Structure prediction request, 136 residues.
Amino acid sequence: MKHFQTMTEAVRAASQLCSGWLVLENGEPVETDAALYLAGVTDRLDHEDDAAGETYYLASDEGAVGVTSRYEYLAQWILIPLPRPMAEIERDASAELERRRSEQSQGRTEPARFCPWCGFRQEPGAKFCPDCGRKI
Prediction:
């Protein structure tokens, strides 16, 4: 784990290990350019608030970015590395969405059915509930 005086330095170091992160506070994905912008804003605010210089930023060996005071074990993580690049995640999500739209337009998918007695999800064409055994 490496320590830095500014968040910008930590993000630059972490960007060598991953190409994008999730912002832990809201779950939004960010890429390097956006993370550097956020880091710059944070650094300007920290410069005003932390005159004593007691705040340190961390870059983990996996590419996570966090903030801490003197005690590393009290770190608050800000950016968590994405398991895959954002472009790959978006491409896979678009392909899955297109596949589902195609199935719906061809009428191949049936709406989900549930047992009126116990609420268990039913397979298409089922006559009896596999959970409670009642006739559907």
User: Anything to note?
Assistant: The chain has three helices and eight strands.
